[in-house]
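[job 4471] stage=fold_predict status=RUNNING
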Amino acid sequence: MNDVIFLKGIRFYGYHGVLPAENEIGQIFVVDITLKVDLSVAGQSDDVKDTVHYGEVFEDVKTIVEGTPSHLIEHLAERIAKRINSHYNRVMETKVRITKENPPIPGHYDGFGIEIVRENN
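[job 4471] inference complete, writing structure tokens
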């Protein structure tokens, strides 16, 4: 099954990072979420109850990224995946990608980040 719901390029301001400046000044975090979901029932019924409401997922991610800081974006991604997998039983797998576009590292780049994939058991 290859059905997915995705939230691409959602941006939040947060205070995550190992360096004190990241915790004090903060920065924008770009988050991409991909949810593996069987969309066939919703495709037939045309009813939001038969899918995962991506507006609700957005609000969950926003609460986490704009909330309590994590030192590592790996930890932040785990928190997001755990929230999604524990609250949306239709989700079979959650992929979370987090990018820091402007980490405090000298150089020229588009960003640094991580991506995790967690199955919903």
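[job 4471] summary: The chain has one domain: 2-117.
[job 4471] exit 0
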